[in-house]
Design goal:
The chain is α+β, with helices and mostly antiparallel strands and about 375 residues long. It has four helices and 13 strands. The strands form two sheets. Strands 1, 2, 3, 4, 7, 8, 9, 10, 11, 12 and 13 form an eleven-stranded antiparallel beta sheet that branches. The longest helix is centred in the N-terminal third of the chain and has 62 residues. It is flat, with a radius of gyration of 44 Å. About 10% of the residues have low confidence.
Amino acid sequence: MIGPPESLASRAKATQRVKVVSQLGPRVCDPQRPGEPLALIKSGAFTRAAVHRRAPFAKDLGGRMASRREVIAQVKNVEFMKTIQIVRASAGRVLTTLLFAIATTVLAADPCVVAPNANGVVVLPPVGCEYLCPDDVHRIVDGLPTGTTIELSPFHRNFICSQDTGGRTCTNDCFIDANLDPDCDPANGTEELFLSEVRFKLKGTGLLAGWERDLTIPNLMCRVQSGPRPAGSPSTFPTLMRQLQGQIVGDPDFDLLRVTAGSDFGLPSPGQTTLTQLPGGNWMVDSFFDITYRIDFIGASGGHLAGASGSTTATIHMVSAAPTVATIPTLSEWGLIILTLSLLTVCTLWIRRQRLVAAGPAAA
């Protein structure tokens, strides 16, 4: 006998009920029969077999959850590595930009790099470029107690062309004295006449240990003979310091401090200059002199050298160099730069890591 047709809603309910009970057991029931789990357990319909039928699904569900956690962990790891790569690239770009900026600034400000004047002549000595001695110092020895010296680190600078020496200047180079060099042509060799100054960083040793000061001798009269300049680049030619002399009087420590050098005073001081053309047309000036000098001094009453006097002769190697400028970071400034970059890197990594941790539960 065929019973009444079952409604579609009843079929859907039955199908839904069988599926739910077979997969999730008594924890899930038909919404229309909320008491079913308890009835199933009491009647024995919820058997051990039902539990075993549910077990594969539980294992599969646990495996899928574990796999999902692994995927999330892998994603986090990939994101973290990407962050590290981004930070490394950013730090590299920042450091490269910083070094390029420093190098560009220093090169642009280097007074030993000069442009030719309107006549195409590289004027020597280069104004603003200093001559110094990186490996040695002037010394005063004679007239001091045994074991006591005065060390003088020199900075020869501030060259002023011959128009201020009473000479007749050449129109193509104001350092060339037309009275000494009528053709004014560097290709044939020149005589340069100019004023300058020398700044000393003074340091006492022995009985004068602890005595340090700066002093300047202005208006040194200088005369340099330069050999013919070869065409092209690099262009190397000999030079000779013929005269260098200047003095100060009435100083708190020196009644007289005089510096003399040059072959005209019997103190031979040969040298050499090389001009190298750079991209863009400017010229790098590399120059040196092996200066034989004499320092005469008379100590001032009431000063560190009261009652002392003497004359010391020696030789020193001096080279052209750009003066120390504030644009070049010191060791402490480099430390601050590196510390700042390190802190930025750490903060970026921490922020990125926190975002990944916060995104983890939501992704799970």
